[in-house]
Design brief:
145 residues; alpha/beta; 3 helices; extended
């Protein structure tokens, strides 16, 4: 038996394939020391395990947070030399919180000529994000779908 490997259905569309190929074709021209990849990860207190194992005939008991679900988001940039511009956010990412991250945390770490790469998350495309990055002398590229 082989494990199922799922992928987004739109990856097979002609327009998406073209955009992905253009992205791959442009990569050899990118200066590795100038790349800054931005991404975020989150954890939520409602991610507690709902299943577990114990000895046969015994009841499995496990404490989980009750009633106050919280989400914590970690966002940072990754350069060839390591992590830059880290920030922890109490709550999920939004367009407003991402713009605040870009203006107050990321931009001070950017140097002229840097290339900021991020995925196509809606909050990444909010008004002011690209302008703030370009005002620091860097450019912005979105990963293809």
């Amino acid at each position: 038996m082989e494990k199922k490997s799922a992928h987004a259905a739109e990856q097979g569309r002609t327009d998406i394939l073209t955009r992905r190929q253009e992205w791959f074709d442009s990569q050899p021209d990118l200066a590795l020391e100038r790349l800054v990849f931005i991404d975020e990860a989150w954890a939520s207190t409602n991610m507690a395990r709902r299943h577990g194992r114990c000895r046969r005939g015994q009841r499995l008991r496990s404490a989980v947070p009750h009633g106050h679900w919280k989400t914590t988001t970690f966002i940072a940039g990754l350069r060839l030399t390591g992590i830059v511009a880290p920030m922890v956010l109490d709550g999920p990412i939004s367009g407003r919180s991402f713009l605040t991250y870009v203006e107050r945390v990321l931009v001070p770490d950017l140097r002229p000529g840097d290339i900021v790469v991020m995925d196509n998350l809606g909050s990444h495309k909010g008004p002011g994000v690209q302008a703030a990055i370009e005002a620091a002398g860097a450019s912005l590229r979105f990963l293809p779908p």
